[in-house]
Each structure stands twice: as C-alpha cells, then as structure tokens.
Task: structure prediction
Amino acid sequence: MSPSWRLWGWPIVLALLTASGLVSALVSDHWGDVWSWIGLGVPVAVMAWYASGRAARKEPRPPR
Result:
C-alpha cells in the first residue's frame, strides 16, 4: 500500500460519503433521505469517537 493512500485513504472515503449524503439529501426522497442520514451520520460519529479520546492509543497505559 502506498504511503499516500495510507495517509489520505480514510479522509477521502469520509469526504465521498459526506458528499454523497449531501447530494442525496438535496435531490431524492425516501431512500435518499435514509442514505443522507447514513452518509452524514457516519462521518460525524467517527469524528465524535476520535474527539472523545476512545480511539486506540499507541502508548501503553502504565500498570496499576
């Protein structure tokens, strides 16, 4: 896997998901509404997960 894909892979996937959710919310009904909730909710959930500090840490926790 190339270094640029390792760096930019997930941000690009989240950007495409967000863009498809926005377009779907603007131009379609019922299934488009469902997809827009998914397409816009997943990136927000990922950002909230990382912001909460629950993401995997590289340094181990000290023993108790």
About this structure: The two ends are 38 Å apart (CA to CA). The helical segments are 3-27, 31-51. Residues 8-50 form one domain. Residues 3-27 form the longest helix (25 residues).
